[in-house]
């Protein structure tokens, strides 16, 4: 079988595929045919030589999704869709950077098969970390205010989706102001620049502090994060994006405020009940995993380079050729739609020309003739912005089938200009829109848009409510 065997500390470019025997099944272990897996920072650290417990040679990979190839003496049936994560996978024994993995049967969990393998691969470690951190460690509930440090990381984006799904107010941070649109598009109530002025920014929003903090940057910022928390609030450290393992000069009696609780999350021990609850939650709220990019196993070096760059803005997934054609089409089309949302929120001409075909046709409500190409869509956006200068679109749900995308948007804004002849009122709107798109060669070629114009006009007082 094909596998990436780590023989020594190396650069991303030195990761290579080799042929190794398929593992021999033994009692208590099952053979899993791997369909896809996500890349994690712990694997990057292992490759860099920062995991002293990992002995070389080792096939890395701490998570995977796939099918039972040989159930051995377990109760599984061949062909069952499963996931596995942590528990020594890719560290104490060979992991997922291969076509097959031999895994202890009690560390393999059945999963629903209602998503593509690439989408499923983005869930186990990323969403398990976010879900358990929020709902088990932080005990987050509706109406609470959550601060996420490291918001544009894959776990940060997953946590944002999960927190918003239960009605929390979310402040999410980034070190790059250009990523504000990404956080706002993902649903953040507030996007803040993580710099020396963060304390003032947080307290301007929450004068008494926030209820909960999800600390993903880690030791460089955790002492500061503890100071942002209101009485009886909780800080959970679940990541080390800052690449520092230990905390210098930590004085608990000084650094942990009275009445504030400090905990940490690790996925070394997986609770099957929590994993089941996670998948049920994702299905209930229609949450789509934020996938940055999908690679093949042959492109593992490129995947690690992207991880090291800290510019992924979502989960990095490895998919096998057997499903690459369909998975890449659907997944990349969804990714295109997220970039398209960034375009309509910024009116970027560069993004318009990148994402919209010159021959694209847009069928616009209340207009007899369709609009065409990037400039046509920009004119639609400018028309909306002339009436609502702060208007923003948020994707609530995407459904993809081959070259078609159905997108549920919510538009929010304040009418501070003339709109369709109606003078400014200062009233706020929150309007649903259901749009349908056709994609070809990585560009939008057609859109049928249907916003709730009746609701919009009623909300600005242009027509009476029924």
* The top level CATH class name of the largest domain: Alpha Beta
C-alpha termini separation: 66 Å
Question: Main beta sheet: strand number and arrangement?
Answer: 7 strands, mixed
Total E-strand runs: 22
Shape, per Cα inertia axes: globular
Class based on secondary structure composition and strand pairing: alpha/beta
Whole-number mean pLDDT? 90
Query: Helical amount among residues, as a percent range?
Result: 25-40%
CATH architecture classification name of the largest domain: 3-Layer(aba) Sandwich
Strand content: 25-35%
Alpha plus pi helix count: 14
Assembly type of the chains comes to single chain
Unreliable parts: 322-328
Structural domain tally: 3
CATH fold label of the largest domain: Rossmann fold
What is the CATH homologous superfamily assignment of the largest domain? NAD(P)-binding Rossmann-like Domain
Radius of gyration, in Å, reads 24 Å
Summarize the structure in words.
30% of the residues lie in helices and 29% in strands. Strands 3, 5, 6, 7, 8, 15 and 16 form a 7-stranded mixed sheet that branches. A 6-stranded parallel sheet has the order 11-10-9-12-13-14, sandwiched between helices. With 466 residues, the protein is α/β, with parallel strands linked by helices. About 2% of the residues have low confidence. It has 3 domains: 130 residues, Medium-chain alcohol dehydrogenases, catalytic domain (Quinone Oxidoreductase, Chain A, domain 1), CATH 3.90.180; 140 residues, Rossmann fold (3-Layer(aba) Sandwich); 113 residues, Roll (Nuclear Transport Factor 2, Chain: A), CATH 3.10.450.
């Amino acid at each position: 079988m094909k596998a990436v065997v780590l023989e020594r500390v190396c650069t991303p470019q030195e990761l290579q595929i080799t042929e190794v025997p398929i593992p021999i099944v033994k009692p208590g272990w099952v053979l899993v045919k791997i369909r896809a897996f996500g890349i994690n920072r712990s694997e990057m650290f292992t490759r860099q030589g920062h995991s002293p417990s990992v002995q070389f040679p080792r096939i890395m990979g701490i998570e995977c999704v796939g099918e039972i190839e040989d159930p051995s003496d377990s109760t599984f049936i061949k062909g069952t869709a499963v996931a596995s994560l942590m528990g020594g996978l890719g560290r104490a024994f060979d992991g997922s950077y291969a076509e097959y993995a031999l895994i202890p049967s009690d560390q393999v969990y059945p999963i629903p098969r209602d998503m593509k393998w690439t989408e499923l691969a983005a869930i186990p470690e990323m969403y398990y970390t976010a879900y358990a951190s929020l709902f088990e460690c932080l005990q987050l509930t509706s109406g609470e205010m959550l601060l996420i440090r490291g918001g544009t990381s894959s776990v940060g984006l997953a946590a944002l989706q999960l927190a918003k799904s239960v009605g929390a107010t979310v402040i999410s941070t980034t070190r790059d102001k250009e990523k504000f649109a990404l956080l706002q598009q993902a649903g953040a109530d507030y996007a803040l620049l993580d710099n020396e002025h963060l304390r003032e920014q947080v307290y301007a929003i929450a004068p008494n502090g926030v209820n909960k903090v999800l600390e993903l940057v880690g030791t460089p910022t955790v002492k500061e994060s503890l100071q942002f928390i209101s009485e009886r609030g909780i800080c959970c450290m679940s990541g080390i994006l800052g690449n520092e393992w230990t905390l210098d000069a930590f004085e608990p009696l000084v650094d942990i405020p009275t009445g504030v609780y400090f905990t940490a999350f690790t996925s070394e021990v997986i609770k099957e009940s929590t994993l089941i609850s996670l998948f049920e939650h994702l299905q209930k709220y229609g949450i789509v995993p934020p996938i940055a990019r999908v690679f093949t196993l042959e492109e593992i070096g490129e995947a690690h380079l992207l991880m090291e760059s800290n510019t992924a803005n979502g989960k990095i997934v490895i998919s096998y050729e057997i499903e690459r054609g369909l998975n890449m089409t659907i997944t990349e089309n969804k990714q295109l739609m997220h970039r398209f949302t960034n375009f309509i929120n910024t009116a970027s001409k560069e993004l318009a020309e990148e994402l919209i075909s010159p021959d694209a046709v847009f069928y616009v409500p209340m207009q007899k003739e369709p609009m065409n190409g990037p400039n046509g869509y920009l004119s639609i956006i400018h028309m909306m912005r002339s009436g609502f200068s702060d208007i923003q679109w948020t994707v609530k749900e995407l459904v993809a089938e081959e070259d078609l995308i159905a997108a549920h948007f919510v538009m929010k804004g304040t009418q501070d200009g003339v709109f369709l002849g109606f003078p400014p009122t200062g009233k706020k709107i929150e309007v649903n829109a259901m749009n349908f798109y056709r994609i070809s060669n990585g560009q939008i070629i057609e859109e049928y848009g249907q916003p709730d114009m009746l609701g919009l006009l009623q909300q600005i007082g242009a027509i009476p409510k029924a």
